[in-house]
Structure to design on (550 residues):
C-alpha cells in the first residue's frame, strides 16, 4: 500500500491515490481518521455561498405543492411535463436544495434543507444554465438557497444557447453540482472528502425527485470532463480564496420525461462558446481562517474526471415495483424528511413494507432517481434487521446487481446461509441473531444504529472499479448518497425516520462479512426507526426570514 505523507504520493499509478486515501481515512476501534479534534467555532464556514456583484433574481415560492402522490416520486408516467419557466425551475429548487426548516435551542438557530448533509455543513453548491424567458436572456446562475434566488454570473449569448439546444435536440437546461471541501474538512478533517461525495449523491437524488414532480428527467452527462464543466461554470475566471474554491462534481441535462434519449456529452463548440463568457461575481468569504488538508487536494486531483466515451446505462428488464402505498403526497414526504436523533425502539415495520422499501433501491429504467444513469449498480446493502414483523432478527444481504452475487458470496464467510427470503427479491438471510449491539458498535458506537427497525452498511464493489477508472471513487459515494436519499424518503413514507451514518469503523464492518481485502468496501451506513422528538428544539418555517416575499 502506498504511503501518503503530507498528502503527497510520488510515482504511484493514478488509481493508488484514491485507494491509499481510502485506507488512510478509515476509522478503526481506538483510531479515528485524522481530524482537527475540536470545533474551531471562530472559523466555522458559512453554509451559504453567494456571489457579490451579480444581479440577483428572487425566485417565487410554491403557493401549492405539486399534487403528485407517493408513487409519482418514482414513476414518470403521471407527472405531466411542465414548461421550463423560472417559476417551475424555482419549484424544482425549492423542493430539492431549498431550506426545509429552521431549528432553535438555547439561543442558537440553524437551518435545515431538503437535502441532508453530514454535520449539516452543506458543501454542495448548485449552478444552472437556463434557457431564455420572455423577460430575460439565457444565463449562468448560482442558486442561493438562503435567499431562494438565482445569482446571474454570466449572460449566455443567444448563439451559444442555440448550440446547446441543437446539441441536445430538445428543450431543457444544464445543472451542475460542485463541492467546497473546506466546509466539511473544517469539522471532519481528512475523511471529509468522502462526506462531500455522499452529499453530492443526496443532492443529485433530491434534484431528480423534485424534477420528476415537474415532469422532467435529469441525465448525468457521463462523457464530460470536470475541466469542461469548470469552463462552463466560468471557474477559471473566478478569483477564489484558497481552500474555498468550488470543485466541479457533475453536469446534468434536465429535459422532459417524455424524451427517450439525449446525448451524454458536450460538443467542443459549446465548451468554447462558454470559455469566452465574461463571468461576474465575487464568491463570499466563508471563514476567517482555513486549514489546508493536503490529502484532500491530492485525492481530489487524482479523481478528477477526464473526458470519456458517452455511455447509455440500461438497467434491463425488471419486475414491476412492489407497491405498498403511502398515504402521504410526494412533496409532503420531501418536505418532512429529517434525520432522526434518537429512536424509541418500539415500533416495528411490516415485512411487506420492508420488502417494498428495499425494492425502491433497485435501479430501473425510467424510474427516479437512478435513471440519471451514473453507472450500473455497484453498491449493495448489508442489513441488520432488528425489528421487522415476520422476519427473523439477523444479518441480511440485498444484492442490487446480480453480477456481484457470486463474487461476494465467494469472499464472504463460508458459514453464511445465503437463504433467499422472498421469491423475486434479492434479499438473503446470512445469519440469524440479535445484531443490535454490534450494529451500534461498528457505527462509531452510535446508539441509533442499534435501536431502530433496521440499519445497514452499503457495500461497494471497489478495487476493480477504481483501478479501471480512479474518478469513479467519487461516483461510488454518489451512488451511496442516492441510496441514502431513497431510504430517507422511504422511512418517512412508512411512518418512520432515517439517519445517514458516515461515521463507522471500516474494517470491523468488513470483518462481519468476512471480507479480508478491498475487492468490496463499506462506504456509507444508514439507520431507520421510530424517532423520538427532541423537545428542547423549536421548529420554525423554512423561509421565515423572507416572509415579505411569500
Ligand atoms: C453523508 C452523511 C453522513 C451523516 N452521518 C451522520 C452520523 O454519523 N451520525 C448522525 O447522527 N447523523 C449523521 N448524518 C445526519 C446529518 O447530521 C443531518 O443530515 C444534518 O444534521 C441535517 O439534518 P437533516 O437531515 O434533519 O436535514 C449524516 C448525514 C449525511 C448526509
Amino acid at each position: 500500500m502506498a504511503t501518503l505523507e503530507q498528502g503527497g504520493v510520488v510515482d504511484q499509478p493514478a488509481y493508488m491515490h484514491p485507494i491509499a486515501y481510502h485506507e488512510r481515512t478509515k476509522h478503526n476501534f481506538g483510531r479515528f481518521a485524522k481530524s482537527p479534534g475540536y470545533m474551531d467555532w471562530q472559523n466555522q464556514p458559512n453554509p451559504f455561498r453567494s456571489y457579490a456583484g451579480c444581479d440577483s433574481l428572487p425566485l417565487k415560492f410554491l403557493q401549492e405543492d405539486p399534487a403528485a402522490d407517493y408513487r409519482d416520486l418514482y414513476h414518470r408516467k403521471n407527472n405531466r411535463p411542465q414548461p421550463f419557466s423560472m417559476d417551475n425551475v424555482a419549484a424544482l429548487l425549492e423542493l430539492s436544495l431549498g431550506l426545509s426548516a429552521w431549528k432553535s435551542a438555547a439561543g442558537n438557530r440553524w437551518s435545515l434543507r431538503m437535502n441532508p448533509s453530514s454535520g449539516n455543513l452543506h458543501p454542495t453548491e448548485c449552478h444552472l444554465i437556463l434557457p431564455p424567458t420572455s423577460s430575460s436572456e439565457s444565463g449562468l446562475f448560482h442558486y442561493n438557497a438562503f435567499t431562494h434566488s438565482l445569482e446571474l454570473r454570466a449572460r449566455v449569448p443567444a448563439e451559444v444557447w442555440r448550440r446547446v439546444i441543437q446539441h441536445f435536440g430538445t428543450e431543457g437546461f444544464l445543472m451542475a453540482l460542485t463541492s467546497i471541501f473546506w466546509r466539511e474538512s473544517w469539522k471532519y478533517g481528512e475523511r471529509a472528502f468522502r462526506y462531500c461525495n455522499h452529499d453530492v449523491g443526496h443532492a443529485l437524488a433530491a434534484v431528480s425527485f423534485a424534477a420528476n414532480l415537474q415532469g422532467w428527467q435529469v441525465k448525468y452527462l457521463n462523457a464530460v470532463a470536470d475541466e469542461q464543466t469548470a469552463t462552463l461554470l466560468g471557474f477559471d475566471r473566478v478569483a477564489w480564496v484558497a481552500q474555498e474554491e468550488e470543485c466541479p462534481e457533475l453536469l446534468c441535462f434536465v429535459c422532459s420525461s417524455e424524451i427517450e434519449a439525449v446525448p451524454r456529452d458536450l460538443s467542443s463548440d459549446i465548451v468554447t462558446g462558454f470559455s469566452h463568457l465574461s463571468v461576474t461575481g465575487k464568491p463570499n468569504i466563508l471563514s476567517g481562517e482555513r486549514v489546508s488538508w493536503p490529502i484532500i487536494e491530492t485525492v481530489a486531483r487524482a479523481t478528477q474526471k477526464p473526458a470519456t466515451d458517452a455511455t447509455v446505462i440500461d438497467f434491463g428488464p425488471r419486475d414491476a415495483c412492489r407497491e405498498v402505498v403511502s398515504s402521504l403526497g410526494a412533496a409532503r414526504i420531501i418536505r418532512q424528511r429529517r434525520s432522526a436523533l434518537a429512536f424509541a425502539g418500539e415500533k416495528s415495520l411490516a415485512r411487506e413494507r420492508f420488502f417494498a422499501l428495499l425494492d425502491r433501491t433497485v435501479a430501473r429504467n425510467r424510474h427516479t432517481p437512478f435513471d440519471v444513469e451514473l453507472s450500473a449498480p455497484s453498491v449493495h446493502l448489508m442489513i441488520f434487521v432488528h425489528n421487522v414483523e415476520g422476519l427473523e432478527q439477523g444479518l441480511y444481504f440485498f444484492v442490487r446487481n446480480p453480477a456481484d452475487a457470486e463474487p461476494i458470496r465467494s469472499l464472504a464467510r463460508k458459514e453464511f446461509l445465503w437463504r433467499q427470503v422472498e421469491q423475486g427479491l434479492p434479499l438473503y438471510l446470512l445469519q440469524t441473531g440479535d445484531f443490535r449491539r454490534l450494529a451500534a458498535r461498528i457505527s462509531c458506537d452510535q446508539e441509533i444504529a442499534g435501536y431502530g427497525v433496521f440499519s445497514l452498511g452499503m457495500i461497494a464493489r471497489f478495487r476493480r472499479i477504481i483501478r479501471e477508472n480512479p474518478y469513479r471513487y467519487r461516483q461510488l459515494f454518489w451512488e451511496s448518497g442516492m441510496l441514502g436519499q431513497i431510504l430517507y424518503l422511504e422511512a418517512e413514507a412508512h411512518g418512520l425516520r432515517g439517519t445517514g451514518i458516515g461515521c463507522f469503523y471500516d474494517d470491523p464492518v468488513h470483518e462481519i462479512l468476512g471480507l479480508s481485502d478491498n475487492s468490496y468496501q463499506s462506504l456509507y451506513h444508514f439507520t431507520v426507526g421510530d424517532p423520538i422528538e427532541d423537545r428542547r428544539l423549536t421548529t420554525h418555517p423554512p423561509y421565515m426570514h423572507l416572509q415579505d416575499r411569500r
